[in-house]
Amino acid sequence: MTKTPPNAGVIAFLSGEDDLWIPAIALHELQYGLQLLPHGRRRYGLEFAMTAFIAEYEERILPLYREAAEHAGSFRAQAHRSGHLLTVGDALIAGTAAAHELILATRNIKDFDYLSIEIVNPWRDTQPAI
Prior knowledge:
With about 130 residues, this protein is mainly alpha-helical. It has one domain (about 20-120): Rossmann fold (3-Layer(aba) Sandwich), CATH 3.40.50. It has five helices and four strands. The strands form two sheets. It has a two-stranded parallel sheet with strand order 1-2. A two-stranded parallel ribbon has the order 3-4. The protein is globular. The relative contact order is 0.16.
């Protein structure tokens, strides 16, 4: 399905988390990237994996609510004032984490490390940073 084997740190992180939640906007970003791929074995394999992923976490997908949107707006303003670019998608992901008082797991630490939320990079470590 994918060319490289899954990262061992990510697998360990996921298997050790009983309370893992997925923001709906993250599914949007995954689907967008998937739809940009050319048709072929890789795309079909990833579509299959995405379907299985959604089925696995169906009950733990966080919709976008008012409080998350408000946090997202505050985060984008904070980013703007400090000279950072925070995309709407990333702001909504961070806003969802903040609204639910969750730790944000991401490989893209640099996109979030100046915000006032806890983050962890399962590809690198397992301890959250503030």
